[in-house]
């Protein structure tokens, strides 16, 4: 079984490609972990479209923490987490909402907590009999965010992406809807 990372820019086709991988490896035996919190109309519409696109037979869990236990407890053949960067954002905001006033030690403590959650995700992914597919955004290729919270989010997300990629068996980078395999073990094709 494999840990698979799908990354890329906004609207690059990450989710659809990851869903096709989940269908290939799990068929209708897929657990979809949705990490978003739809708090406004735009996000609610995005979530609605994602739900409509997925097979009705897939189970869905809405969560952004405790992912290790969710992966361990499912009997599905494949798990699809969409997405890691939203998970990081939610964890960051759960810790505190006043990041503009925080010092580097505060940021380091927050990153340690987020890193522990990601470590649990990786461990559960590696120690099971399922394929685990993680969707994430490539956040370090754009402009430096103007606000401190944006920079903190970008930096922590980038380091969590790196951690997942280092542990992944396969990594795909999406460009304009085209998957580029950038890491592969055993030459396994999707």
Task: Lay out the secondary structure.
Layout: E1 3-8, H1 14-26, E2 30-34, H2 41-53, E3 59-62, H3 67-73, E4 78-82, H4 84-95, H5 104-126, E5 131-135, H6 148-167, E6 170-175, E7 178-183
Parallel strand pairs: 1-5, 1-6, 2-3, 2-4, 4-5
Antiparallel strand pairs: 6-7
Helix pairs in contact: 3-5, 4-5, 4-6, 5-6
Short description:
This protein is α/β, with parallel strands linked by helices. The protein is built from 6 helices and 7 strands, in the order βαβαβαβααβαββ.
Give a structural overview.
- The protein is of the alpha/beta class.
- The protein is built from six helices and seven strands; from the N terminus they run E-H-E-H-E-H-E-H-H-E-H-E-E.
- A seven-stranded mixed β-sheet has the order 3-2-4-5-1-6-7, sandwiched between helices.
- Helix 2 (41-53) links the parallel strand 2 and strand 3.
- Helix 3 packs parallel to helix 5.
- The protein starts with a strand and ends in a 7-residue tail after the last strand.
- The model has no long low-confidence stretch (mean pLDDT 91).
């Amino acid at each position: 079984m494999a840990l698979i990372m799908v990354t890329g820019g906004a609207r690059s086709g990450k989710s659809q490609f990851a869903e096709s991988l989940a269908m290939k490896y799990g068929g209708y035996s897929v657990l979809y972990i949705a990490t978003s919190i739809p708090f406004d109309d735009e996000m609610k519409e995005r979530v609605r479209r994602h739900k409509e696109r997925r097979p009705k037979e897939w189970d869905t869990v809405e969560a952004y923490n405790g992912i290790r236990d969710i992966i361990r407890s499912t009997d599905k053949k494949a798990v699809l987490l969409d997405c890691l960067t939203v998970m990081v954002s939610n964890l960051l905001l759960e810790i505190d909402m006043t990041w503009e006033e925080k010092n580097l030690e505060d940021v380091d403590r927050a990153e340690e907590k987020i890193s522990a959650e990601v470590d649990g995700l990786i461990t559960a992914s590696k120690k099971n009999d399922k394929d685990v597919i993680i969707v994430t955004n490539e956040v370090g290729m754009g402009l430096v965010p103007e606000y401190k919270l944006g920079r903190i989010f970008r930096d922590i997300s980038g380091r969590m992406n790196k951690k997942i990629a280092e542990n992944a068996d396969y990594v795909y980078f999406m460009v304009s809807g085209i998957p580029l395999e950038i890491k592969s073990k055993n030459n396994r094709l999707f």
